[in-house]
Amino acid sequence: MSKKAKDKKKSAKVESMSELEHPKPNGNKRLKMKRKAYEKELERLQIELVELQEWIKHKELKVVVIFEGRDTAGKGGTIKRITDRLNPRVVRVVALGVPTEKEKTQWYFQRYVAHLPAAGEMVLFDRSWYNRANVERVMGFCTDDEYWEFLRSCPEFERMLVRSGIILIKYWLSVNDEEQERRFKARINDPLRQWKLSPMDVESYARWVDYSRAKDQMFKYTDIKQAPWYNVNADIKKHARLNVISHLLSMIPYTELEQEPFEMPERQDDVGYVRPPFEDLTFIPEVYPRPEDFSE
Predict the structure, then answer these.
(1) What's the angle, vertex CA 147, arms to CA 136 and CA 63, rounded to 5?
(2) What pLDDT, in 10s, does the model give residues 25-39?
(3) CA–CA distance, 192 with 87 (Å, rounded to integer)
(4) For 132-165, what is the HEC assignment?
(5) 144-163 vs 208-222: helix axis angle to the nearest 10?
(6) In 47-144, at which residue ranges do the beta strands (DSSP E only) sit?
(7) Where are the domains of the chain?
(8) Domain 46-98+106-251 in CATH: superfamily?
(9) CA distances from 228 to 68, 156, 248 (A)
(10) pLDDT band at residue 6 under the 50/70/90 scheme
(11) pLDDT band at residue 296, thresholds of 50, 70 and 90?
């Protein structure tokens, strides 16, 4: 990148960050950033994520990012903004379902190990092995012995991952009880978001205190020096997304790589090629555009 382009990029970053200065609070209510400022900063951060992706691939890094938190805290939305502009062959999302009967008989961490990154990959876990310390503990899906064995084993498991060269980053997205209730009701009343709800999610709402105790206990044992927990205030989704991406970028030192410029080649001459008749092809119905789509 030329010096002029770098200076322009730096200037744009400063200008963008100036728009993100926290507004003065209005009582106890937090003010939301304007959509235009949010979208501008999100685009800038996503460009940086592309550069980070290329650095991970170039340096053959192995990165694991864990997203945990209460239901409706915005884990999926944050992950989506991270991966929106990235190559799914380099940055993968892992969101495992209920374990099979066979998996229930395996070493607990076994099915997660199969999804760890190879060199040059970053894996984002939308919930992870910490299910045992949260959902399984609160809902009674594991025994006391299994739970306490997890709390003993997890720190050693993660230290082993770090020693093997994996960069392990753990986020806990927090949301207050009033905001969680609002988001639950929004999902219940929105047919486009009802699929996000399950009986387990509804039950988690009723067991707010149990989940708080489980989270505190989990932090006590697994907030280790080699892989600390990073707490995210997710009461305002847009703020949380930007803050997570910004922090993630700060966790992995990277440098923008010089890219070889692409040049469009000349297209080969059409010599002797005869295209099949259109009548022999099957096209989908052209429902759009409709006449009303052209009206002002």
Answers:
(1) 80
(2) 444 567 899 999 999
(3) 26
(4) CCCHHHHHCCCCHHHHHHHHHHHHHHHHHHHHCC
(5) 40
(6) 62-69, 91-94, 121-126
(7) 46-98+106-251
(8) P-loop containing nucleotide triphosphate hydrolases (3.40.50.300)
(9) 13, 13, 13
(10) low
(11) low
